[in-house]
Amino acid sequence: MTLSAPSIRSRKRRAGKQPLVMVTAYDEPGARYADAAGVDIILVGDSLANVMLGHTDTMHVTVEEMCHHVRAVAAARPRAHIVADMPWLSYHVDLADSVRNAGALIRAGAQSVKLEGGRVRRDVVRALLDAEIPVMGHLGLTPQSVLAFGGFKVQAKTREAAEWLIKDATVLQDEGVYAIVIEGVPSVVGTRVTEALEIPTIGIGAGPDTDGQVLVFHDLLGMTSRPPAKFVRQYADLGSLITEAIGRYAEDVRSGAFPDASEAYDNPEGLLN
Ligand code: KIV
Fold this sequence. Notes:
By secondary structure, this protein is α/β, with parallel strands linked by helices. It has one domain: Alpha-Beta Barrel (TIM Barrel), CATH 3.20.20.60. The protein has helices at residues 5-9, 28-36, 48-51, 63-74, 95-108, 122-130, 146-149, 159-175, 187-196, 217-220, 238-255, and strands at 20-24, 41-44, 81-85, 112-114, 135-140, 179-183, 201-204, 212-215. An 8-stranded parallel beta barrel has the order 1-2-3-4-5-6-7-8, surrounded by 6 helices. α4 packs parallel to α5 and α5 (95-108) crosses α6 (122-130). The structure holds 3-methyl-2-oxobutanoic acid. 3-methyl-2-oxobutanoic acid (KIV) binds next to β6.
């Protein structure tokens, strides 16, 4: 039975619930591996832009590209909940456009959508919920704001900014989002915002006290070209394993060791002789 947005909404650690586990995936194998590992939520993140398409920020993916990858993830039919990022400019122009874009992600196979920003997103959150689309929020170091922030910088570092973020979180909660990602803030802000909310927080670089954690697939598996951020724990070095395996294949082709007789089809009696 797929995990629903309402069932995720009740996953507060202080109510004795287990922390939520979220990981990104962008295709069928990634979703299959993540689901087999028992994660709760698969995020088809707009980090697609960075880790799959080679861009330096997340502002270069479109709704169409996101839908293409949501369809691939949904093809794995995971038990985990599938949430899709609304890409930059897909919810900033007008409300009807935003609902249509979220609807496209749902029709591609997502069960909810995630968008970045606090009180400025009030109307769009309400419009999506009116269209029966569950919404996850995202506050703190929101990557779609990289140009406005002047770089990927830890957010909420002053009392005023921390209080602003906590207020944004309560506004989103009051509008009806079912969970909020908190990214790139001092741990005490992760703790305080989690305490202030009735809905779960899912942290990435927000310390140990949030109601769940999220990591990017390629970061956690060691498949990125740049050194990982401070908050990443790398659980495998698949990048090196992949290069090493392909290197051995190349060596075998060049030396004639691949393929051997066991890797070739039998010759029917009398064929071509
Ligand atoms: O796109 C993404 O991968 C994200 C996570 C960093 C939360 O939004």
